[in-house]
Amino acid sequence: MEKVSSKPKQIFILSGQSNMAGRGGVIRDPHQHHQHWDHDVPPECHPHPDILRFTAKLQWVEAHEPLHDDIDTKKVCGVGPGMSFANSLRDCGVGVVGLVPCAVGGTAIKEWARGEELYETMVKRAKESVKEGGEIKCLLWYQGESDTSTEHDAEAYQGSMEKLIQNVREDLALPSLPIVQVAIASGDEKYLEKVREAQQRINIPNVVCVDAKGLQLKHDNLHLTTQSQVKLGQMLAEAYLKHFASS
Questions:
Q1: Which spans of this chain does the record mark as coiled coil (predicted)?
Q2: Which residues partner with 135 through β-bridges?
Q3: CA dist., res. 165 & res. 146, Å (int)
Q4: Catalytic (active site) residue 171
Q5: Are 98 and 126 in contact (CB under 8 A)?
Q6: Mean pLDDT split into 10-residue runs, the chain, 247 residues
Q7: What pTM value is reported for the model?
Q8: Catalytic-role residue among 84, 129, 146, 223
Q9: Among 15, 18, 88, 228, the one annotated catalytic
Q10: Domain map of the chain by residue range?
């Protein structure tokens, strides 16, 4: 990938687990038992010179699907919400957009605690992303499916997420960093609602919640389809523009 000459003005951190990393269009081959991405990129997710991505090697390149290809490396990545989000912002005249993918599939919130590798990598990537200019505008967070299996995890979710918000704001020295979190649409039925309630109950300034419930899931009943990811990206952009863009 060629490094790009333009520099992002508005930087967005994409983090969480597999639905943020993107599994849209990832299909299991029935004969070979492995997964591959179908390479179907809807128009809403097409690349544009004004949409950049921060690579695993900490370089800005022109963004294209799958955004998390070099980040969530143990799984096959497909379409997530990031490109649809960025294109929606660009349609509203938000200059050069920089995306900093950090999501890793199958991760529970406790793995995003301060001191843990995932958290520290996210903070490091975020700090590196602004070294050549630009400003971190928002953290987009979609995670929680891995916390729906036990009552203990579901009960602890709200406290853990509130702590994460506090930590990331402290460590990036952005005390009012906007955060748009997604209320999950899938997971273990046992405690799915409990985690969703926790997500929607969080009441911290500059934190808003977008609900993924009702978006179509793939046959695995866990991951959003490509079209659902397009829609989610648009919902995230609407939430960001409505609550945070004017400031």
A1: none
A2: 10
A3: 18
A4: no
A5: no
A6: 71 98 89 84 96 97 97 96 97 92 98 98 98 96 98 98 98 98 96 98 98 96 96 98 84
A7: 0.95
A8: 223
A9: 18
A10: 11-27+34-244
